[in-house]
Design brief:
Elements lengths: L7 H9 L4 E5 L38 H23 L4 E5 L9 H12 L6 E6 L6 H8 L7 E9 L3 H7 L5 H13 L3 E8 L7 H13 L3 E6 L2 E2 L3 H7 L8 H13 L6 E4 L9 E3 L6 H15 L8
Parallel strand pairs: 1-2, 2-3, 3-4, 4-5, 5-6, 6-8
Antiparallel strand pairs: 7-9
Helix pairs in contact: 2-3, 7-9, 9-10
């Protein structure tokens, strides 16, 4: 079956000639949305996006040197896990958990350098928020381009609708996303955008509006997150009271088809569904496995004669 959307695995093999795997690390950052009494996004728990194989990482080092040692230890752990599972010898370094540009420039430089020293790495990937990208941050990230083949920033947008950003408690707007993409692209840094499908009160055209925003700003990739409910979050309270529901796999697939058909085909689809561990998740309690989603999506696109971007 011919691929009808631009897959991440296909992109990596075309660019680098073979599979490349991410080593996700938690550098013990926090988030501006958790400080100052704002409480964080309604969907986010304390663990944030830490890789499953790093869930045994202990504590929160109080000093910079401790954080750097932790990153180095996690890289060794991640490399061992991935080599055992996939047999790969090519890796990207992925600063994954929380807001990985939320610190002083000097601390960021030391942390990134400490991680890259454990290489070689194909890419440096940094996950953050749109309101935590400045010219100084972009320049710092660009300074590492001679150590890797690409520097990429993952920006958590979630939705192109301002009302949804307010509901989620994001405390940033679409304009800040546009500004951060512009700063990063001017510095020669790749951009992947995180979005959520199935958000409360969003109608089906919301996915189309978000796709059009991504096309307009020229993001290089997109990571798609189906709405799910984590323990000890505001969203859990809403879910338990019946205020919100989560999409069935079929509804998520329908949203994926709509979104992809309006997405520029040059944009790499990095992720289609989230895989939060069961012990952290309230709903859906028995999600459809990722591979089944991928297989079913391919069949729906084939059956309909659809392709990424065919509605542009």
């Amino acid at each position: 079956m011919t691929e009808r959307y631009t897959t991440y695995s296909g992109y990596l093999r075309e660019r680098y000639g073979r599979a490349v795997y991410r080593i996700g690390v938690d550098a013990h950052f926090t988030c501006p949305n958790r400080t100052g009494g704002r409480g964080g996004c309604v969907f986010c728990d304390e663990v944030a996006a830490r890789a499953v194989y790093q869930e045994g990482v202990g504590g929160n080092p109080s000093d910079l040197e401790g954080r750097i040692r932790s990153v180095k230890d996690q890289i060794a752990r991640g490399r061992t896990f991935i080599e055992r599972r996939y047999g790969s010898a090519r890796f990207s370094l992925y600063f994954q958990a929380h807001t990985n540009t939320y610190d002083s420039i000097e601390n960021l430089k030391r942390i990134y350098q400490g991680g890259l020293a454990e290489g070689p790495f194909v890419e440096l990937i940094v996950s953050t928020r749109p309101d935590c990208i400045t010219t100084e941050v972009a320049d710092l990230l660009a300074s590492f381009k001679d150590q890797v083949q690409a520097v990429v920033v993952e920006l958590g947008l979630e939705s192109g609708d301002e009302a949804s950003l307010d509901l989620l408690g994001r405390n940033h707007d679409v304009a800040s996303y546009r500004r951060s993409v512009g700063l990063l692209r001017s510095a020669g840094i790749g951009v992947y955008t995180h979005i959520m499908l199935g958000l409360p009160y969003e109608d089906p055209p919301a996915a189309v509006r978000t796709a059009r925003l991504l096309n307009e700003v020229g993001t290089d990739g997109v990571k798609i997150h189906d709405l799910h409910v984590l323990r000890d979050t505001v969203l859990e309270t809403w879910y338990e009271s019946g205020e919100v529901t989560v999409a069935s796999s079929e509804r998520h697939l329908a949203s994926l088809v709509t979104f992809l058909r309006h997405l520029d085909p040059s944009i790499v689809v990095v992720r289609l569904v989230c895989e939060t561990p069961r012990h952290r998740r309230v709903a859906p309690r028995s999600p459809t496995p990722k591979q089944r989603i991928i297989t079913r999506l391919a069949a729906l696109l084939e059956e309909g004669g659809y392709r990424q971007g065919d509605m542009l």
